[in-house]
């Protein structure tokens, strides 16, 4: 079976984790701090706050920006449900925004149009690692705070700088499907001292200076996870460049035959996920099933979040998100995949579509 995704875990990662286990210092400590400094430096941010997942990073970001009941938050309709669920968990209302048919991210125009007097913040997603049009969005939204969901986008670049540099808070995920993994893990990045202080307080039972000042949970990262993340970080350039090479092979083979995600001029994707939108007349789930029978693990690409049971009753019609969610498929891509395996996937896919 050619797997859909596979993290690249080598001896360095195993040694780093074993050393933590031997040390007996397992929860947030020196390694978490080193991992935070390394990511902050990489993305040119003043603060990085490591947490237990990308979802937690989004939840704490909304809390740190004091988003709550009565507020509305703009959120792209095509994604994993985490960003929209995080808004709900904060007690605020999600206003879903459709996505661009080619780039699969919400545009500056769509975000500007969806904004109203109750809008407190906009979540901007670099979906599948494809950079949003950051400069246009910043200009369109003016002083409105942005939470950048860069869960998939470590190693991607806007024309103006790295993904993870757009938001008042930017959020990363280190889930095994992401560019680097810590098992489960996430991070918030910000340049604002007071926001960073609130994030640190919120991840650690609401403690500030040894006092419990608000009621909050435990969202800390472990030393085991940080050791894994630091070892993974050594591979980042290699991982991203190999993903780009593999994606280029797919693009050369499949462009013109089906819908592919396009990247804004001057930006670079890390190809965290390689998605295709199947041509008319094909049932995506049936295609996935047949590909599996041919030894290729393909999967559903993403969700039209407003159509999920967790948003039952939402009447929004967002045709592009719905179209891509219905016909989108993720193809295998991971750094250790061989070029010949891309050819096999392409052959299998053509075979199934021509049956
Ligand atoms: C765009 C986006 N945001 C947030 C998340 C949540 O990250 P995590 O799985 O680390 O909670 C994901 C995960 O797939 C995602 O794709």
Structural class: alpha/beta
Strand order of the largest sheet: 1-10-9-6-5-2-4
Number of strands: 17
Mean pLDDT: 98
> Roughly how much helix do the residues carry, as a percent range?
25-40%
Write out the distinct hetero groups bound to the structure: pyridoxal-5'-phosphate
Detailed description of the structure:
- This protein has 355 residues and is an alpha/beta fold.
- The protein folds into two domains: 11-233, Type I PLP-dependent aspartate aminotransferase-like (Major domain) (Aspartate Aminotransferase, domain 2); 236-353, Aspartate Aminotransferase, domain 1 (Alpha-Beta Complex), CATH 3.90.1150.10.
- It contains twelve helices and 17 strands.
- The protein has helices at residues 11-23, 30-43, 54-64, 82-89, 108-114, 134-141, 193-203, 223-233, 236-254, 284-293, 319-327, 339-353; strands at 47-51, 72-76, 78-79, 93-97, 119-125, 146-149, 157-158, 161-162, 169-173, 186-190, 207-208, 211-212, 259-260, 274-277, 299-300, 303-304, 328-331.
- The strands form five sheets. The chain has a seven-stranded mixed beta sheet, with helices on both faces. It has a four-stranded antiparallel beta sheet with strand order 13-14-17-15.
- α3 (54-64) packs across α7 and α9 packs parallel to α12 (339-353).
- The structure holds pyridoxal-5'-phosphate.
- The site of pyridoxal-5'-phosphate has 14 residues, from α3 and α4.
């Amino acid at each position: 079976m050619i797997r859909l995704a596979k993290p690249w875990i080598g001896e360095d990662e195993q040694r780093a984790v074993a050393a933590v286990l031997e040390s007996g210092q397992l929860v947030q400590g020196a390694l978490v701090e080193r991992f935070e400094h390394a990511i902050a430096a990489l993305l040119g941010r003043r603060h990085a706050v490591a947490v237990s997942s990308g979802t937690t990073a989004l939840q704490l970001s909304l809390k740190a920006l004091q988003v709550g009941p009565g507020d509305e938050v703009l959120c792209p309709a095509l994604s994993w449900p985490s960003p929209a669920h995080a808004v709900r968990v904060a007690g605020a209302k999600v206003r879903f925004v459709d996505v661009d048919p080619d780039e699969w991210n919400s545009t500056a125009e769509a975000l500007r149009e969806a904004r109203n007097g109750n809008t407190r913040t906009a979540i901007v997603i670099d979906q599948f690692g494809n950079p949003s049009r950051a400069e246009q969005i910043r200009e369109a939204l003016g002083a409105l705070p942005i939470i950048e969901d860069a869960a998939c986008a470590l190693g991607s670049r806007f024309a103006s700088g790295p993904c993870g540099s757009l938001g008042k808070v930017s959020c990363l995920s280190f889930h095994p499907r992401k560019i680097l993994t810590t098992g489960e893990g996430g991070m918030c990045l910000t340049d604002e001292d007071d926001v960073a202080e609130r994030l640190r307080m919120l991840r650690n039972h609401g403690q500030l200076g040894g006092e419990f000042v608000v009621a909050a949970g435990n969202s800390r990262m472990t030393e085991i996870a940080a050791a894994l993340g630091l070892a993974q970080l050594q591979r980042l350039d290699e991982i991203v460049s190999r993903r780009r090479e593999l994606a280029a092979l797919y693009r050369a083979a499949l462009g013109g035959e089906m819908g592919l995600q396009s990247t804004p001029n001057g930006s670079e994707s890390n190809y965290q996920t390689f998605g295709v939108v199947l041509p008319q007349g094909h049932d995506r789930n049936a295609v996935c099933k047949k590909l599996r029978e041919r030894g290729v693990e393909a999967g559903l690409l993403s969700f039209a979040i407003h159509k999920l049971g967790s948003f039952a009753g939402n009447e929004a019609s967002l045709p592009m998100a719905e179209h891509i969610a219905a016909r989108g498929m993720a193809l295998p891509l991971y750094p250790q995949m061989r070029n010949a395996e891309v050819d096999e996937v392409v052959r299998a896919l053509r075979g199934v579509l021509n049956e």
